[in-house]
Amino acid sequence: MRPYFLSLVLLLSACATLSPDIKKTEDAAIVGKTLAPGDCGLYVWTADAIKTFTLFASSTEISYFKGQEEIMLTEDNPANPPSTIRSFTDTEGKTLSLTLLSPEDIEGGIRYKAGRLTSLSSDGWEKVVPIVGFYACQPLL
Predict the structure, then answer these.
(1) Beta strands per DSSP E along 4-108
(2) Does the CA dihedral 75-121-91-46 come out positive or negative?
(3) Minimal CA–CA distance to 62: which of 26, 98, 38?
(4) What is the pLDDT of residues 22-31, one digit of tens each?
(5) What's the whole-model pTM score?
(6) Between β-strands 53-58 and 69-75, what pairing exists: parallel, antiparallel or unpaired?
(7) Residue 35 burial (CB < 10 Å; 0-12/13-18/19+)?
(8) Which is nearest to 99 in space by CA: 71, 64, 133?
(9) pLDDT digits (tens, 9 = 90+) for 97-125
(10) Element (DSSP H or E) covering residue 135
(11) Quick one: which of 40, 42, 39 has its CA closest to 85?
């Protein structure tokens, strides 16, 4: 009886702690960033406690999210399959560098447990944001 009671307590406490996180991850930026059958894409989040969705890259679009603003990017040297070191440019000519580290093969894709997103501020300071990412392909139906 005691193991069943402990299991129930753990299950209920897990549900209680997950509920706020579920609401927190419902980010409007990720809505619409889906892949067509056969298409592959990269999803990137900040590696902090908030886990803000930051970058989406597929064969048809590359979007960077700065606060509530969506900035369209082009890749400087696209490769297939994509490299773990990528450079992007926005419409104003500003560069954003992405380095993906610690790849882990998982079912359906690759998880990057570390990385950094580097940009240059208008003051000339280099801004480095720790990130995590996920690369996957939508199967053909």
Answers:
(1) 40-46, 53-58, 62-66, 69-75, 85-90, 95-106
(2) positive
(3) 98
(4) 333 455 667 6
(5) 0.76
(6) unpaired
(7) middle
(8) 133
(9) 999 999 999 988 999 999 999 999 889 99
(10) strand 126-137
(11) 42
